[in-house]
Amino acid sequence: MAxxxxxxxxxxxPESLTETVTHYxxxxxxxxxxxxxxxxxxxMGIREKTIGVAPVGCSVFAYNYFATDFVEAxxxxxxxxxxxxxRVLPDNIVFTYQGDGDLASIGMAEIMHAAARGENLTxxxxxxxIYGMTGGQMAPTTLPGMKTTSSPVGRxxxxxxxxxxxxxxxxxxxxxxxxxxxxxxxxxxxxxxKKAIRLAFETQERGLGFSMVELLxxxxxxxxITPVESLAFIEDxxxxxxxxxxxxxxxEIAKLxx
Amino acid sequence: xxxxxxxxxAAFAEAAIRAGCEGFYGYPxxxxxxxxxxxxxRMPELGRAFVQAESEVAAINMVxxxxxxxxxxxxxxSSPGVSLMMEGISYIAGTExxxxxxxxxxxxxxxxxxxxxxxxxxQMVKGGGHGDYFPISIAxxxxxxxxxxxxxxxxxAEKYLSVVHILVDGxxxxxxxPAELPPMKKLEDPPPDWAVSGAKGRxxxxxxxxYIDPKDEEVTNIRLFxxxxxxxxxxxxxxEYELDDAEIAIIAFGTAGRVASTAVREAxxxxxxxxxxxxxxxxxxxxxxxxxxxxxxxxxxxxxxxTGMMLEDVKLAVQGKIPIEFYGxxxxxxxxxxxxxxxxTRIHESPPKLGNGQVxxxxxxxxEKNIAGGR
Lengths: 258, 375
Hints:
Chain A is of the alpha/beta class. Chain A has ten helices and nine strands. In chain A, the strands form two sheets. A seven-stranded mixed sheet of chain A has the order 2-1-3-4-8-7-9, sandwiched between helices. Chain A has a two-stranded antiparallel ribbon with strand order 5-6. In chain A, helix 7 links the parallel strand 7 (about 175-185) and strand 8 (about 210-215). In chain B, strand 11 (about 250), helix 9 (about 255-270) and strand 12 form a beta-alpha-beta unit. Chain B is globular and about 75 Å long.
């Protein structure tokens, strides 16, 4: 008779993630990003000193998913709100979680100056090239030619401008310690994203300045394609416009092995 | 402590520090800039937070974030800057957080100018941001009163989890006069039980102004309104001068009130029975006190440095029972005492009658003469 198989725990909900039924659409990668952040908070043992700042957009309810203190910012103002908190509570870990409309359009001034000041905060930036919550309007990161409800015949760069590459721009700031772009379209890239989120929080923990991880993400609902097709869309269309890579990595973080 | 010769803006900033302000976030704008400059020097000396933000929009959202920690935090600005802050002020009110906002008012609308004005009365007193909320608004009339009111503002903000506006104008911000600062307050520790600080050994806390279900928002609106009724019942403040036997009552706040007090003193020397009622809190407005006053005097003269914004609130209090005259200077012009004295004399010599539908037109006509006369 074969020996009974001993059950072994190999996967569980991170302590930093609450038991909340998701409100995100099927195929949306917000849930993956949430989980990666929660895993990092657990691994670093910083859940109890972390304060999150939620944005306006699909992730407006991000605070429902994290077992940390949270505040809810006005649209685009999360980096300012996070600055206010971090400056009076410098020993806490403060992070913002923002979408592309929030961070790269209405909140452009706040994100740029938070980086310029070298605010010791971590920004998780979800770039899915569209406004999700309001129903699929053109974002500052919408690809040229991409159809949205406010660019119904496709983004015409002549009249609507070009996509903005935030990681590249923010990496030019002397106050930035860690700025990278990753993607959530397959397991290998998800693992790389997790490591980047870890390094971003390590940057803050070590007081090395502003840190941001830009995550290329899917929006099958508003892209009007299936979840599987949307992951292919990230790889085939978003990655060429938004190249993955390390745009600024502080020397101390570059040497770190996690 | 003894009196020193203090410059308004710097004295207000120091008063805030001594009242326990641990975070100041601002953006330079005339005529409030010395407030920010004083904070820039003093806050780091004391190990407290100071950030010159990229805009007033960012500044108020930094205040919003810092207010979530339960610490005493504030900003100071002037009219156009405060307009930019209105979004954040509404969020702070909706999240039920304490915060103090000082507006050193200047002439407007638009870019206007940098001279003293009371043109932001409606914006500050009635709310200014979106949604149903009720800021406390305090309008001191001297450097000393402003110092005292800033400490009170933090107390009221915390007691009622409310936004508190301090309305001063460029005169008070820029003038130097003898005043006494309070001693340094010991900082509060630990944070209040609603503040975010990291969920150590307790359930996580969320601070937000979002109530996606209208029923929940309605409950919140009712809670805010009930709190406001409590504020109206308990926190009305005003000053009375020479009103005991007065037949004419001037109602004026801030600088206009202070100029009016000089006119009252001069009119009294001429034997005219006139006094001054000066609201110190504009919200809550001393409605009951003015209603009572209207039973004791024959007429009221409202003096403002705007087109009669507080006049509307005085009318609501008086309910048409006695005549109300108006005199205002606009656009950053401060009235001289003799202009107000002229108004007092006019009212004394030919008492106004009820039912004059031309009060504002008559004022404009008199004002034209003063402008033409170079005043």
